[in-house]
Write a structure and sequence with these properties.
The complex is a heterodimer. Chain A is of the alpha/beta class. Helices cover 33% and strands 30% of the residues of chain A. In chain A, the strands form three sheets. Chain A has a six-stranded mixed sheet with strand order 5-6-7-3-8-9, sandwiched between helices. A four-stranded antiparallel sheet of chain A has the order 11-12-10-13, covered by helices on one side. In chain A, strands 2-1-4 form a three-stranded antiparallel sheet. In chain A, a hairpin with a 2-residue loop joins β8 and β9. The two termini of chain A are 36 Å apart. Chain B has a two-stranded antiparallel sheet with strand order 1-2. Helix content of chain B is 74%, strand content 2%. By secondary structure, chain B is an all-alpha fold. Chain B contains twelve helices and two strands. Classes of the chains: A alpha/beta, B mainly alpha. At the A-B interface, α1, α2 and α3 of A face α1 and α5 of B.
């Protein structure tokens, strides 16, 4: 039985817009329009789309915080809105931009409250908390008030809070927003391990392509309130032609693209800074960054380099553009 | 139940971290107590020794008890819920497996428990030193007074919570807030005792929950009402508690259905 089942789900909002000097007119905005999907237990699904595409609206309806305009939702066998409290004991939610911790208390003080809310006896939540604190490296700032934590520390605390009651499903709304590379990677490793060990179902929205690549086998792309793509990540990259771009700075200028040796499949994109800076795009499923770099280094000395992932906005635009054509 | 107990405890701890604020608050309450007491006392002297059954000492006691209970009873309220609706953080509250009203209520009781000593004691000490207090000698008024204070904390909480809940329907509750503050300050007997009101206003006040929010515990603690009368007053408080609880629960129920959570 699917853990999430969504049928013909829609949500519209009434907004007022000015009409003339004093009058206002009601306007209906369709944030989510008739989406269908289901998620099986243990799956890891990335829910992606541009800003305002309807991601957060969907998540709010899944967690029972927002009433759908029409359609049917079932999460862990519950109807989210009327059974919100019962559902909350089965799922963990992380809103990347909000906090479920108690702002002016030391971090460790939030967990007894959460344990009590989930009706877990101390013998149950305490070992689990210790396990999470160890895995997420919370030790050094457990006694620091939440308001004084850095964003990366707080996010680790948030994820531990969402997982304290061993939920069947964890929903993360932009969990890595604003985190540095190391914090992001730590969080991803942890989420991946958690899913492998406990079979926790994962649904996450993100703007970071590497989150999806690291964590999800399946992606749902939402655009303008409708599902534009539902399938494996590799398929998405094929559809949208996802490419990585490597930018290298050479120690000595090379003025022509032909003078730089590149492996098959890598495409030279341009020269900047009078032959010093070159950008090369390649398909990450066929070529590794190391191969590309090795080829370039065989003809020119590389002083510096940076890698650019395809961004989700770009992918979605490509994808949706091609679907409309 | 354990969740609400933990919430109350955590709220007590949260408030206990702001000690400077508590000291500043107690100082303000005491200074305003001096101003209010001197105004009332000069009025009573002008009137010839007593107004509406209050002697000078009794009027001063009324002022100091009011100033002491001001913070613990939560007479200034908090707009926390409305702010969380505005910022969209209400989504977090609604994602928890607890009753929204009960979780805020428990936290308010924890806050009140902290406020009792640091905010309640200083005005009473200042009062005892400056004007003297007329307090009853038997234990009953204090025992019943404790129950009455608990009820009054809850009534004040529910009153302000209802105003906060209006934010489920309207974007800005400031107007409602102001109106509520003005009406509550007058009818709760905070400015002058309700028995000083003209007859029509006294009757009107008694048809509202407001006197139960301050006047009742002050009267019981000062020993102005005793025995059966005090019990009846507490009974009225509990009645209003039931009424407000139903109103608030209805508001949560219908309001959360039409709540639009702000932001992404």
């Amino acid at each position: 039985m699917p853990i999430i089942e969504v049928e013909e789900l829609s949500r519209e909002f009434q907004v007022m817009e000015p009409a003339g000097r004093f009058r206002r007119r009601k306007k209906t905005v369709h944030a989510v329009r008739g989406i269908d999907f289901s998620v099986e237990p243990g799956e890891a699904v990335g829910y992606i789309g541009a800003n305002g595409a309807g991601k957060s609206t969907t998540i709010k309806m899944l967690t029972g915080v927002l009433v759908p305009s029409s359609g049917r939702v079932s999460v862990c066998g519950f109807n989210p809105v009327p059974q919100r409290k019962a559902l909350a004991r089965k799922i963990g939610v992380v809103f990347g931009q909000r906090s479920q911790l108690w702002w002016d208390l030391p971090l460790q003080d939030s967990y007894p409250i959460l344990g009590a809310m989930h009706r877990m006896p101390e013998a149950d939540w305490k070992p689990r908390f210790q396990e999470l604190a160890e895995q997420m490296d919370l030790g050094e700032f457990l006694t620091t008030p939440v308001r004084q934590l850095s964003l990366g520390q707080r996010m680790r605390g948030e994820v531990a809070a969402a997982l304290l009651h061993r939920p069947d499903l964890i929903i993360l709304d932009e969990p890595t927003i604003g985190l540095d590379m190391i914090s992001k990677e730590k969080l991803r490793q942890f989420l991946d391990a958690e899913r492998r060990e406990n079979g926790t179902t994962l649904l996450l929205t993100t703007h970071d392509m590497s989150d999806i690549q690291r964590l999800c086998q399946r992606v749902l792309v939402v655009d303008d309130g409708a599902i534009a793509y539902d399938g494996p990540l590799t398929g998405l990259a094929d559809v949208a032609g996802a490419v990585r771009t490597m930018v290298v700075d050479l120690t000595a200028p090379v003025h022509s693209a032909d003078l730089l040796s590149l492996p098959d499949g890598a495409v030279h994109q341009g020269i900047e800074a009078e032959g010093i800076r070159h950008s090369v795009s390649f398909d990450p499923s066929k070529l590794s960054a190391a191969t590309v770099l090795a080829a370039i280094s065989s003809t020119a000395e590389v002083a510096d380099l940076s890698l650019h992932e395809p961004d989700i906005e770009h992918l979605v635009r490509e994808l949706y553009g091609s679907a409309r054509r | 139940m354990r969740a609400y107990w933990e919430l109350a405890k955590s709220s007590f701890r949260r408030h206990s971290t702001y000690r400077t604020a508590a000291v500043a608050g107690a100082f303000t309450n005491s200074v305003f107590g001096l101003i209010r007491a001197s105004l009332l006392l000069s009025a009573i002297t002008t009137a010839g020794g007593a107004i509406g059954g209050y002697s000078a000492m009794e009027a001063a006691t009324y002022v100091w008890l009011g100033q002491a209970l001001l913070a613990p009873l939560g007479l200034f309220g908090t707009a926390e819920l409305a702010n969380r609706v505005k910022s969209g953080d209400i989504a977090v509250d609604l994602s928890r497996s607890v009753n929204l009203t009960a979780s805020y209520w428990a936290q308010d009781l924890g806050r009140a428990a902290f406020d009792v000593l640091p905010r309640g004691l200083p005005p009473l000490i200042v009062g005892a030193l400056v004007t003297g207090l007329s307090m009853p000698g038997s234990p009953e008024p204090y025992l019943l007074g404790f129950v009455s204070i608990l009820a009054a904390v809850s009534l004040n909480f529910l009153g302000f919570f209802a105003i906060n809940l209006l934010s489920f329907w309207v974007l800005e509750i400031r107007g409602f807030w102001m109106l509520y503050m003005v009406v509550m300050n007058l009818l709760s007997g905070f400015l002058v005792p309700v028995t000083w009101f003209p007859g029509w206003l006294l009757e009107f006040a008694r048809a509202t929950p407001f006197p139960s929010m301050l006047q009742t515990p002050v009267d019981i603690l000062a020993g102005r009402t005793v025995g059966g009368e005090s019990l009846a007053m507490v009974g009225i408080q509990l009645l209003w508690l039931a009424v407000l609880l139903i109103v608030v629960q209805m508001m949560v129920r219908f309001g959360s259905r039409r709540l639009v959570v702000q932001g992404g």
